[in-house]
Design the sequence.
């Protein structure tokens, strides 16, 4: 049976993607879109089998709910048009209530399925602990569900679609197949990016002809993603596994190094996958939204989250942060707080409540565990603190005559943000909150360079050669990052070169993966980290 | 015109890529078959250092094979030369590679395939990876970039080393098996993945074409074997016209004592079990009448040297 576990597998790269592209290339436009949908469902089936029923249910339900909302809006519009002015407000309010009921129903169904499948064991486990603490003789059975692949991603797309129809940003789609393709497009179903209907549905349905430049750019992007994943993320895997699973045996320095390595691994795995995903889309001529924009060039945590998993942050901003901060109770709170606390701290109070909800959801979205909730709260605390102390920082830097736009100060900000991110990822990866706290404590209480002096650090899964190759690759990716920050279009420049140079670039990418890739005996590839979220 | 140009460019790109991979494979291939030179699975690849056309029996399979069959015992009992190309968790795609590799220099008259590997699922990643590594060894030995020397760019591969135990892994640890009644008769047959059936068929055909007899052998294991698996292999053997011996059902002749002859609770045999299995196989091989006793043949003197080393080690233990 054909089964698939990762985009970085032979099944995807050698079988499914080339076959889909081949089929797409030979079919006329009307059938190309059907072939994309077919490929998407074959992909989903290969990963999750019968659990494809969840995706089909979500697609059918948002199709129906979208049309339901649309019909309410139409009724409302025609009634408003036919009514006298003084009655219009009342009619609108009446219909708004109806729409809100439909949206609430849709959200309950979709988020409800996600909550039940993903979080029941977590909630049941915590309830059992509470029952034990209060000596209540009840023990809930802890169920375990098999999750369809990408449920967190396509559920968010579904909810966004419903909200956008409700907000009249987009019309409800009558075409079930177009909606199905938007929900299930195979390169992005497993790990995102979380697309909006207005961004991708139309271009997917349009199914443009294959173009030479799209194919070459797509392949280049895929190779770049493979390089990040196979050379760096997979190479770091053994060291990270060893340290995180037996952190009690290692000193603070080793733990600190492992936190940095995990942050690099997570970035290389996820952004490498995104390169592969966006590259796959590009082959078909689809422009999927970017999920990363060189996050380690960020000067603040707030900026970091605008550059890291961009589509998730944007989703939380549009569908949780803004609705909450624009809600009547929080607006009232803001105006009251502004009077008492002033123009800086006043709006911060209401913003903090909305921000708290966003980061609670963000933490929980990443996993059902207290360490994930802590991860969310950690970033909430950092962002809030950053906003609160901003006037103080401005005052201090002015007094000390520090130019905030100067290169050294920006470097300091970037390094500081990087350290804060690594601390957060330490808790994120730790096997539980207690372990995370214990690891963090060890960095300070048990710090020693003995493992470097006796070279034992090189026996934990990465020898000196491994470290060297990771370092060189990071420098290479850093240089590319700097060029992109300066808005230099690298691929366009390569495309403009003669065939020898272009071939050489491909050969260099392929050979670097073949020779320096961490695969074969002695290596365990990292599981697709974000596919589990 | 533009399409023709692009197709030509793609073709040229593929040809150059293959040439580069071949060149890289030349550099990365270990220049000797010893593990110190970077050779993977050196014990199994020790067959490459054997004199041409001197191996009578080739044994293939996973850890069950190198734990249960000791070629030196067969040499001692019958004077037949056997080599175990067994590797841990061997999957049939790799078995097939080893079979073909062994036949490049040898013409064994009997090929024994230990059957545990037949039930091991092969992922597409594995299948393609093994196939690629077979043609371009850079895929298997790419990690040698850490130890490449000038000689790797200029020298030719010379496989001169062979294993004195002939692929067998000598273990004397005793860890008794708890489950002893593991072969409860049933009519049910365990499913063998289709891809694996295809591999066994191809191996059978290859052996037939090269004048070798393929024999499927299930060595004793209380952990890995049962009657359903026996039935599955029996059916496969019947289908492809291949001889099958399930030693798990022949304990009256082999006399495995599960309280002494296993090193890990019945999963694998230890040396004492391996000696019993190998004695049985010596008798079986004699009965086939296909092989010649080489013990007195001066061309095989090195086998007697290896036997001395082997016996010294066994006596020490």
Sequence:
């Amino acid at each position: 049976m054909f089964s698939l576990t990762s985009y970085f597998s032979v099944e995807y790269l050698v079988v499914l993607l080339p076959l889909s592209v081949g089929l797409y290339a030979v079919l006329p436009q009307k059938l190309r879109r059907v072939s994309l949908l077919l490929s998407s469902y074959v992909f989903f089936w290969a990963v999750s089998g019968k659990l494809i029923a969840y995706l089909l249910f979500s697609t059918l339900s948002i199709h129906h709910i979208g049309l339901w909302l649309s019909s309410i809006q139409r009724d409302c519009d025609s009634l408003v048009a036919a009514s006298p002015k003084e009655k219009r407000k009342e009619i609108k309010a009446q219909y708004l209530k109806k729409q809100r009921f439909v949206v609430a129903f849709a959200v309950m169904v979709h988020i409800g399925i996600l909550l039940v499948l993903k979080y029941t064991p977590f909630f049941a486990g915590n309830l059992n602990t509470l029952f034990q603490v209060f000596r209540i003789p009840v023990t809930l059975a802890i169920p375990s569900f098999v999750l369809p692949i990408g449920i967190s991603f396509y559920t968010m797309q579904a909810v966004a679609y419903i909200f956008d129809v409700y907000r009249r940003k987009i019309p409800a789609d009558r075409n079930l197949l177009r909606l199905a393709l938007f929900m299930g497009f195979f390169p992005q179903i497993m790990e995102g990016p979380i697309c909006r209907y207005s961004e991708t549905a139309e271009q997917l349905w349009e199914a443009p002809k294959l173009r030479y430049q799209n194919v070459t750019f797509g392949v280049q992007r895929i190779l770049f993603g493979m390089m990040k994943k196979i050379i760096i993320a997979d190479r770091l895997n053994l060291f990270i596994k060893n340290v995180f699973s037996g952190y009690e045996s290692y000193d603070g320095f080793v733990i600190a190094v492992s936190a940095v390595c995990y942050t690099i691994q997570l970035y290389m795995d996820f952004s490498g996958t995104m390169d592969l995903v966006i590259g796959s889309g590009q082959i078909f001529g689809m422009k999927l939204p970017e999920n990363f924009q060189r996050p380690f060039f960020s000067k603040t945590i707030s900026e970091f989250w605008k550059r890291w998993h961009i589509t998730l942050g944007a989703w939380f901003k549009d569908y949780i942060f803004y609705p909450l901060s624009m809600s009547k109770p929080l607006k009232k709170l803001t105006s009251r707080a502004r009077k008492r606390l002033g123009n800086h701290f006043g709006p911060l109070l209401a913003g903090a409540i909305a921000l708290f909800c966003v980061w609670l959801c963000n933490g929980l979205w990443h996993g059902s565990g207290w360490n994930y909730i802590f991860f969310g709260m950690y970033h909430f605390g950092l962002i809030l603190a950053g906003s609160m102390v901003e006037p103080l920082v401005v005052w201090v830097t002015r007094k000390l005559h520090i130019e905030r736009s100067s290169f050294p100060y920006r470097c300091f900000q970037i390094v500081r943000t990087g350290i804060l991110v690594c601390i957060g990822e330490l808790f994120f990866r730790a096997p539980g909150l207690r372990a995370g706290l214990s690891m963090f404590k060890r960095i300070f209480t048990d710090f020693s360079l003995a493992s470097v002096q006796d070279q034992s650090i090189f026996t934990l899964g990465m020898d000196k050669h491994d470290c060297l190759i990771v370092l060189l690759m990071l420098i290479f990716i850093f240089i590319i990052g700097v060029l992109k920050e300066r808005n230099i279009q690298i691929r366009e420049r390569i495309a403009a070169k003669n065939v020898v140079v272009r071939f050489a670039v491909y050969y260099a990418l392929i050979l670097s993966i073949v020779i320096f890739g961490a695969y074969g005996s002695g290596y365990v590839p990292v599981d697709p980290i974000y596919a589990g979220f | 015109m533009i399409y023709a140009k692009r197709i030509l460019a793609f073709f040229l790109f593929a040809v150059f890529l293959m040439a580069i991979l071949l060149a890289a494979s030349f550099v990365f291939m270990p220049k000797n078959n010893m593990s110190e030179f970077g050779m993977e699975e050196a014990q199994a690849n020790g067959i490459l250092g054997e004199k041409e056309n001197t191996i009578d029996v080739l044994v293939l399979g996973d850890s069950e094979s190198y734990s249960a069959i000791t070629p030196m015992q067969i040499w001692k009992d019958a004077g037949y030369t056997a080599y175990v190309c067994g590797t841990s968790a061997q999957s049939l795609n790799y078995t097939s590679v080893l079979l073909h590799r062994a036949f490049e220099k040898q013409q064994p008259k009997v090929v024994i395939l230990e059957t545990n590997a037949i039930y091991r699922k092969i992922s597409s990643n594995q299948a393609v990876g093994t196939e690629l590594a077979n043609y371009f060894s850079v895929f298997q030995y790419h990690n040698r970039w850490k130890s490449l020397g000038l000689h790797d760019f200029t020298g030719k591969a010379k496989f001169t080393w062979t294993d004195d135990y002939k692929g067998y892994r000598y273990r004397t640890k005793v860890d008794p098996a708890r489950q002893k009644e593991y072969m409860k008769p049933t009519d049910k047959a365990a499913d063998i993945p289709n891809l694996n059936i295809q591999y066994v068929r191809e191996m059978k055909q290859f052996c037939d074409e090269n004048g070798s007899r393929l024999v499927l052998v299930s060595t004793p294991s209380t952990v890995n074997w049962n009657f359903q698996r026996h039935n599955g292999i029996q059916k496969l053997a019947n289908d492809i016209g291949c001889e099958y011996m399930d030693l798990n059902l022949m304990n009256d002749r082999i006399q495995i004592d599960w309280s002494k002859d296993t090193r890990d609770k019945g999963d694998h045999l230890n040396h004492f079990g391996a000696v019993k299995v190998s004695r049985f196989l010596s008798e079986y091989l004699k009965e086939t009448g296909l092989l010649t006793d080489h013990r007195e043949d001066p061309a095989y003197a090195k086998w007697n040297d290896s036997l001395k080393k082997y016996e010294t080690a066994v006596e020490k233990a």
About this structure: The interface with chain A takes residues 6, 9, 13, 16-17, 20-21, 24, 28, 40, 123-125, 127-129, 138-140, 142-143, 145-146 of chain B (CB under 8 Å). The mean pLDDT of chain B is 93. Residues 140 and 251 of chain B are 40 Å apart (CA to CA).
